Amino acid sequence: MKSAVVVFPGINRDNDMAHALEVVSGTPAHMVWHADTELPDVDVVVVPGGFSYGDYLRCGAIAARAPIMDAVRRHAARGGFVLGVCNGFQILTEAGLLPGVLMRNASLKFVCKLVHLRVENANTAFSSAYAAGSVFRTPVAHGEGNYFADDDTVKRLEGEGRVVFRYVDAEGNRGTDGNPNGAINDIAGILNDAGNVLGMMPHPENLVEPIQGGTDGRGIFESVLAAVA
Amino acid sequence: MFNNHIAITPDLVRAHGLKPDEYERILKLIGRPPTMTELGIFSAMWNEHCSYKSSRLWLKTLPTKGERVIHGPGENAGVVDIGDGDVVVFKMESHNHPSYIEPYQGAATGVGGILRDVFTMGARPIAAMNSLRFGSPDFPRTQHVVSGVVAGVGGYGNSFGVPTVGGEVNFHPRYNGNCLVNAFAAGIAKADGIFLSEAKGVGLPVVYLGSKTGRDGMGGATMASAEFDDDSNEKRPTVQVGDPFSEKVLLEACLELMQTGAVIAIQDMGAAGLTCSAVEMGAKGNLGLELDLDKVPCREAHMSAYEMMLSESQERMLMVLDPARHAAAEAVFIKWGLDFAVVGRTTDTLRFVVKHHGEVMADLPIKELGDEAPLYDRPWVASPKLPVIAPADVPAPADLAEALLTLIGSPDLCSRRWVVEQYDHYVMGNTVQHPGGDAGVVRVNGGPKGLAFTADVTPRYCEADPYEGGKQAVAESWRNLSAVGALPIAVTDNLNFGNPERPEIMGQFVGCLKGIGDACRALDYPIVSGNVSLYNETNGQAILPTPTIGGVGLVADVEKTVGLGFRAAGDAIVLLGTTTGWLGQSIYLREIHGREEGAPPPVDLGEEKRHGDFVRGLVTSGRVSAVHDLSDGGLAIALAEMALAGDLGAEVTLPESGLPPHATLFGEDQGRYVVTVAAAGLDALIAAAKAANVPATFVGHVGGTELKVSALTGASLCTISVDTLRQRHEAWFPAFMAVAH
């Protein structure tokens, strides 16, 4: 699998993401600078986590307008895979590649902890390695992960199976304290309508080796690896 | 309009925090009255914070050398060899006064400052910790300070992208008017890739890099060298404002720039900003330095020379660059979008010359600015020794189970989840032991090597007996590192005390330093960096003496570290060390009986070493499934914390000791650990302990959903479900923060 990680100033999980991609695929990722205008020939582009441009103005807003983002849009339009994690998810919504917005956490505080995700749709390029309905752990680390969209958009996302991951508790139940940020319908990750762009707030890249406390996050990368094979 | 040649009056001298005799010293040194800019420069260089004038004499007594030590105190951070050509670079520094006045920005810029100290030396930060002390939960301002400080620590560290892997949070009324924020950072570099502040070469460009200079933080170091009173809130403009994005960009740019070979010397602008950094670079290199302030990138219009020299605007660096590599350096600055400017040059005059609008605003002897700073041998009196309280003189609680629940849910021992969840401890993907254990552990360079970090001090012990308290802080740090299987290699100390001009406070300082020095010598645990924060007083009330010890340990194989949580039902529980039921200054005595009395537990450094070495060996040889050191709250709290972390109960029988059960359970004797071992390995472990001259007592088994403690007779002393323990442990912090105070 050929992959690229986009690096904006202020991004801080670029190396974490590159490491996870290499651990799972065996191939080092290309690191692509935000001021570049072309992507290398890759199967998947990852927009990683961090605080691009300090998240000043609005999280992801400045990065969404960086020179490299036109190339990311063209890659997506061609059917190439795009994964946005945390700040990357925020950037993809600001860039118009995914619907909705990420608001301030309902607690108004930054939250870093392990959460549980339920696989709502295992029939996607990003989730096929998981069993439908299964529950896995990932860390979250964000201040603005409270997903929101208007009623019609949420209905479409739900109806079309584009809510890929949902926050649940350890037993897989909703409605308890599994949702770390107040996201509508406990949404943790969504897909675009073409099925090739996924945004999610949690960090699967931080849970790919046993020494990190588990390998639950590998499934995301293994799914994409299978999809490009 | 700024008048550099204003007559210097006694009022002006006092307003700059200088004593009359210190001003006389200035007159003697330069042979004329200083200009206004020069007076500002002296106030910045000669305040307590920058000159260590009250503490220098005593700091010299600390052990700072060791086989692994490459750079000790005197540089931006300590540098210690960790093998394979790698070094760890670390330091801890206080930001107490600013954090009390403006909690969010004070704490944020404290984190920013310590990170900058580390990457200025060429190291990439890999871990952070913070040691926080707040006033009584009942004090009206405490909640506001907690909320702002925690958010500020997180806001800066999270954005910068360094995992916060440990720290402390404590409450005591003596911090009501003066919180403590001690920020620690560690980074990794190659031994041959360390950068220092010492300028080399005459006529070389001095380059300014990073954020623009504004009026924020003006005179911050001088503020930090004075006591507080009720009007201290008026000092808010002296608090700096942090910009973690600029710092992150500065980090990447500096590390990239260092790779080009263009950097000859580098110094971050921390306390006293441009003044301190420029003087340090010149003085260390035996060179003069000339600054042209017309070139300094400014955020605000019409800044005077005085203001520029005293600004503590954050995220700024000063460097001496190799002119032959200027183009490569410039390309890096432009890539990262950073402000940079050539603001001066090195000279052979040994003068520190500051020009603005073509006029010489300051012309001072550069070496003497640092070397001739006042040095005081402050009078001190030793703290009176307190009586030892016998276990029999401390009443039993009405109910042991309820006492344990009270302690595990008390402000100082309850869960720190509310705090820790606001810090990113996953970023970089190398965290092996997360906050909440005895020490944080991170993998280094892909492993198997790792580093362990812990921050420790027990201020109530230091208050009761500064010498034993100083020893205990070091010993607890050593113990915490040993508990995760790390070899303790070096220390950074952050010494927080009251007004050193009061002999009893100076006595606390001296006592603690003697204890720290003796403990570090006995444990081969050198001090490689540190910071002193004095004048932590409000309206004449000093904080508890708080010499925070930041300990760093080397882990040979991160796969082999163990945590404190009970791992498997059936594992045997073994108590290591000697139990005398020491309840003087214990959490039990304070929380259950409302008494802060007696001598604190003494530390036997020989025992400490023997027990720690033994435990470390157990961990690294894979013989134990869990380890926890005993500290606040003694055996009972240790067992409860192990049960909570592992979500498993235990059945424990107290050994025959002749002590009342509450003394065995809550006594705070030092040098002790609880370990668990597979039942089949119990006999071998007890035998090994005996051979190593380490007292070892089998006390029970892991299992079930309750923590059950019985007397040797079989009589039940206390039975609590792990769920109930958890409810009480988790309840206090969120409830405290939710109430509108």
Word description of this protein:
Chain A is of the alpha/beta class and 229 residues long. Chain A is 22% helix and 24% strand. Chain A has 5 helices and 11 strands; from the N terminus they run βαββαβαββββαβββα. In chain A, strand 10 and strand 11 form a beta hairpin. Helices cover 35% and strands 23% of the residues of chain B. Chain B is of the alpha+beta class and 741 residues long. The radius of gyration of chain B is 26 Å and the shape is globular. The model of chain B has no long low-confidence stretch (mean pLDDT 95). The two termini of chain B are 45 Å apart. Chain B has a 7-stranded mixed sheet. The chains are: A alpha/beta (229), B alpha+beta (741). At the A-B interface, helix 1 and strand 6 of A face helix 8 and helix 10 of B.
Features:
heterodimer, A: 229 residues, alpha/beta, Rossmann fold, nine-stranded mixed β-sheet, two-stranded antiparallel sheet, globular, B: 741 residues, alpha+beta, seven-stranded mixed β-sheet
Summarize the structure.
Chain A is α/β, with parallel strands linked by helices and 229 residues long. Chain A has a single domain (3-228), classed as Class I glutamine amidotransferase (GATase) domain (Rossmann fold). Chain A is built from five helices and eleven strands, in the order βαββαβαββββαβββα.
